[in-house]
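Why do we care about 3D structure at all? Because function follows from shape, and shape follows, mostly, from sequence. That is the central idea of this module. The next example makes it concrete: a single protein chain, its amino acid sequence, and then its structure expressed as tokens.
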Amino acid sequence: MNYQLADRWHNWDTLNVMKATTLALTLASAATLALMPSCANDPMTQANSANANASQIARDSRAALRSLCAQNPGARALRGKAKGVLVFPSIVKGGFVIGAQGGNGAMIRDTGEISGFYQTAGASYGLQAGVQEFGYALFLMDDEAFREINRSGGWEVGSSPSLVVVDKGMAGSLSTTTVAHGTYAFFFNQRGLMGGLGLQGSKITRIHPQP
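And the structure:
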């Protein structure tokens, strides 16, 4: 490889690293603000509501839930008994030492109706680097979960004692006879280079997007 070509490759790598780092820092800043004591009226949440589209979030959330239930027997078993399912079809996660993730979703009730829209944002710290996209759904099995999710200051879902993250091994053994309470989280459509997924440090807040 000649020097000119090597320089081009070096410049391309540097540009992409800079882009990824900028994205990660932007996400981290938003997530850090979201995790501070706040409510649905804080500036970040208001800006998100103003730029979000309720119809698009509803369509994407319904489609993601249909796909998840078609592919995952555990999700399919819980769907019929859950009081509601909060679906975040697309979460973007980025990090370089400081990690952050965020996205919007909809609450789909057992009647099939959309009863509200929410944002999720989170920050984490440690050895991490990269960008990835994924979705997750929270199956709310009882009324206590609804009280948590509509707290005025938001719900720090990762610290909830009733939250169970369902992996592939557990999904096959779930049934409506063994699950009646709590909140069950399913991840789906993971794309990217980062490691494992989790909800630690994540906060869910209600938003009021444009129709």
